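Could you join me in thinking about how sequence relates to backbone shape in a protein? To get us started, please write out a protein record for me. Would you write everything just below, so we can both look at the same thing?
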Amino acid sequence: MAKLNAFSFLFLLLLCVGICKGDWCVVKFTASDAAMQSFIDSACSSHASYMLDLNYRKNNVCQQDIGTIAITDPSYGSCHYP
């Protein structure tokens, strides 16, 4: 659960300081741990929001059960979203 809290903080921080450049598919705050774990497992243990966004870019569909559309770039540090 601590990882989710840290992720939530990072996501909120990115929303506050981000610049609108497009849209990204990121994890919903209401997504269940089981749903996120299932998605991560299917994505070979990659970062869930990054994998959601890649899936969104490829299929033009944000998985509504665990994802939501963000209008600020969620990139941080060396992790750059496409």
Q: What stands out?
A: The chain is about 45% helix and 15% strand.
